[in-house]
Amino acid sequence: MVRKMNAARAEHHEEAEAGAELQSRRQFLSSEAHGRLAVESPARRLQLQLHETLLKPDPQRWSARRSLAIVFVSNAVLWAAVIAAVRALF
């Protein structure tokens, strides 16, 4: 099932890349601009950038073990600080 999901994700990524290339190559003419090129929409550009960013695999992704270790250490430091603060008050 994971293989199917990865294959579907890769296919969707390839389609998105092809669509983004096509979108960047197009030049839209505005009827109000009388033959001048219309200004590219910043919102549409942001949507395309987000779409590309979200579909890219993250090569520097941490392992689950390393993430869990960071969570454990940071929580331990926080609780040690809380306990030290409570002891200092009493």
Question: Summed up, what is this model?
Answer:
This protein is mainly alpha-helical.
Write up this protein.
By secondary structure, the chain is mainly alpha-helical. It has 3 helices and no strands. The N and C termini lie far apart (about 55 Å). The model is unreliable at about 25-30 (pLDDT under 50).
How is the topology of this model organized?
Blueprint: H1 2-25, H2 42-55, H3 64-89
Helix pairs in contact: 1-2
Detail the poorly predicted runs: 25-31
Mean pLDDT across all residues, rounded?
A: 76
Q: Helix/strand-derived class?
A: mainly alpha
Beta-strand level of the residues, as a percent range? under 5%
Q: Count the DSSP helices.
A: 3
Helix content: over 70%
Rg value: 25 Å
Shape: elongated
**Strand runs, count:** 0
| Biggest sheet descriptor | none
C-alpha end-to-end distance: 57 Å
Q: What letter string, H or E per element, gives the SSE order?
A: HHH
List keywords for this structure.
single chain, 90 residues, mainly alpha, 3 helices
